[in-house]
Each structure stands twice: as C-alpha cells, then as structure tokens.
Amino acid sequence: MARKSHKNIGLIGLGIIGSRVAASLRGAGFHVYVWNRSPRAAPNFLGSAAEIAEVCNTIQLFVPDAQALFETIDAFADRLTPSHTILCSATVGPEATVEAARLVQQCGAKFLDAPFTGSKAAAEKGELVYFIGGDDDVLRQVEPVLQASGKAIVKIGEIGAAATVKIATNMLGAVIVQTLAEAIALVKTAGIDPEILGSALEHHGVRSPLIDMKLPGMLQGDFPPNFSMKHMFKDVQIGMHIANSVEMDLPATTAAAGVLYAGLNSGWGELDYSAVVKVYEETKRAPLELREPERGRALPAPEKAAEPEPVPPVTPVENTIVEPAAAPPPEEPSESKADDTNAVKTEDKPVVEAKPETEAAPPSNPAEPAKMEARPKTFGWLFGKK
Questions:
Q1: Which of 2, 110, 289, 345 has its Cβ near the most Cβ atoms within 10 Å?
Q2: Sign of the CA dihedral running 153, 155, 156, 158
Q3: Is 354 contained in some domain?
Q4: SS3 state of residue 154
Q5: Is residue 43 part of a domain?
Q6: Are residues 114 and 228 in the same domain?
Q7: DSSP at 71
C-alpha cells in the first residue's frame, strides 16, 4: 500500500471527464490514485474505494448519478477521518448533494459541492469551470487540486446551491441544442443547404460557443460523446424534478426532455446529446412547399339571425333565489393518445436514483409533481406515431 502524503489525490470515476482530470492532476505534480466500478487500465488503479481513502486525504468524485454517489460513500465511509475532504464533482442535483454531504460529515470528514461545466475538450486542456458550494476554508485547502484541471472557480453559495446552478446551465444547453436541431430541420425541409444556416449564424446575435461547438457535428452527422445523450437526459430530469417540487412549469425543458427521450428510444444514449438532430431525419417528410396566401376572397355574408321568441313575464316570488342553469359538460375529444410504456435501456440509468447498466425508468408527465423516475411525454409525433 502506498504511503499517505499531502500530494496524494484520489479520483473515483474514470469516464470522459474523470480520466482526463486524472491526467491533469498528474501533470500538476500530484500522486493520483484512481478507482472505477468497472476496472480500467490506468496508473495507480487500486482495488476499491476504501483503498483510495486509506492513501488519499482528498478524493474527487466523478460518478454518473446519485445511486453511484451513495454507494461510493458507503464503500469508504468507515475509512474517513477529519483529515479527509470529499470533492463532489458529480451532477446529481441539490437533494442528493446535501444528503451526500450529511453522510460524509457525520463521519467527521469535510465535503465540498464542486460540479463543473466543460466537456471532453475542456477537460483535456485543463479548462473546466468549477461551481462551488460549501465552506470557504474547505475551498482554500483544496483549491490547488481544482486549479489543476480548471480555468476558473466560481463560488456559488452553500452546499447544494452549486448543484442547482449546474443543473440550470445544463437545462440551457439542452434547450439551445434542441432549438438548433429544429432550425436545421426547418432549413433542410425548405430545400436549403443547412451549411448556409451556419454561414448566417456567423453574423447573428444568437451565435454562441455552444453553437460553434455543436453545429459542425450536427451538419455532418458526427456525434462523438463529448456529453452523452443519456447523461443530458438525466440532468434535465433532475431540473424538472426540482421545478415540480415548487410547482413550477418548465415548458421548454420539458419539450427538450421529450426529444431526448425519443433519441434514447432510438438507441443513441451513448452519442453526444446533439444527436437529437437525428430525430428529425426519422420523419422523412416531403420538401416544404411555400405558397402565397389567398387574397381578395370575400367572406360569406352572415346568415340573418332568427327573431327571438317573446319571453313571458315572470311573477316575482318573495325570498326566492333563482340559480342559473348549469353549463353543459365539455365534449370529450374524439381521439386520445395512448401511453407509451416502452422503457429506455441504457448503460447508466438516466435518473438520479438509478444504477448504471440497468434499465432506465423515464419520466411520465414532467409537468406534474412526480418522483424522479417519472417519465416525460414521448413526443411520438416525431416519428409519425399517434
């Protein structure tokens, strides 16, 4: 077993981001010890999360969801001491983050809410941006660790606040890319080369670094997983759960969640979430024909209303209240949409309490207050389904 040193840093979760953060830490001179639930060929790969806690006082977590977070904490809880600091860089939402902090702190260790923004390219360059929730003294102790893989550290507030801001920023990313996918589909349907849309956006105020990053792959049909669709779907579910808990509607996020769900049903969970543009390729609609509206057509003259029959006089009755007639009940719609009961199967379950490599439980109606496993509307119309 390696000897404990202040230069020892533990890292758990060797996915797209975690593996690159480990490389950045090594480049900054730290002795990095790693563990992943599925074994990886990586330097200083130890046999368990508990072994990481035995040799490292600072441990950064990049696990995919809340279930994995709680299992990891449970695995090393009996090895934690007041000298340990846990940096939670998992995107799990405020409720799970606060609970994780409680579990760590009851063992006497310190906890920092430290989610990040930035995808694979930013992680490779050591240019992540960390959002921080927690005690300033704890942040000062671990700041060199975060600086090794980050270009900025943004103090948000208390534990859980950074997790909320992280979810909010991911909601924005999902909606922006979803709208970009719709714009590409609209232009193509009108018979216009979508490359021209890219030229137009170069000079438009809506242009952003995110659009610059995602548009080329969306036009070329190339979707390497800088941020996988299954993880974006999980994050917008968390956002909808937060909103449901305070009875807030998120119509744009709900729509984006529905299209992400359609993408997961098509087996694209491991692709970058910008692959939502593929959903519109499934429609196979004919090219759009733009027609001039009809002009100069006279509206038909209204029919003459029938003369009303005379109303007989009403004899007033003392101390009698006449109730108005009840309105007829509304007619039922002629058609109703059947519930889509297909389950999404992904490697990592895209809900906060999910375990990886298990079957997902997608949301039902995100507009209603529901549990995290509620599934959103499936938007079957995107595939021509009723």
A1: 110
A2: positive
A3: no
A4: strand
A5: yes
A6: no
A7: H
List 132's β-bridge partners, or say none: 155
CB atoms within 10 A of CB 370: 17
Torsion sign, CA atoms 27, 33, 37, 41: positive
Strands 128-133 and 116-117 come out as antiparallel
Contacts of 355 (CB under 8 A, 6+ apart): 65, 67, 68, 348, 349
Instruction: Quickly list H helices, 266-347.
Output: 277-281
Beta carbons within 10 angstroms of residue 262's beta carbon: 22
- Measured between alpha carbons, how far is 163 from 168 in angstroms, rounded to an integer? 9
Predicted structure pTM score = 0.73
Interhelix angle 209-220/194-201, nearest 10 degrees: 170
With 0-12 CB in 10 A as exposed, 13-18 as middle and 19+ as buried, what is 321? exposed
Reduced to 3 states (helix: H, G, I; strand: E, B; else coil), residue 143 is: helix
Q: Could you say which DSSP state residue 359 is in?
A: B
Structure tokens that stand for 240 in this block: 């909808």
Residue 50 burial (C-beta neighbours within 10 Å; 0-12, 13-18, 19+): middle
Whole domain around residue 92: which residue ranges?
8-159
Dmax (CA) of the chain:
103
Q: Which of 281, 312, 334 lies at the terminal end of a domain, its last residue? A: 281
**CA distance from start to end of the chain:** 61
Instruction: Indicate whether 270 belongs to any domain.
Output: yes
Asked if the structure places residue 63 within a domain, the reply is: yes
Phi-psi region of 320 (alpha: psi -120 to 50; beta: other; left: phi over 0): beta
Q: What is the CATH number of the domain that holds 122?
A: 3.40.50.720
Q: In this structure, are 168 and 155 located in the same domain?
A: no
Q: SS3 of 24, please?
A: helix
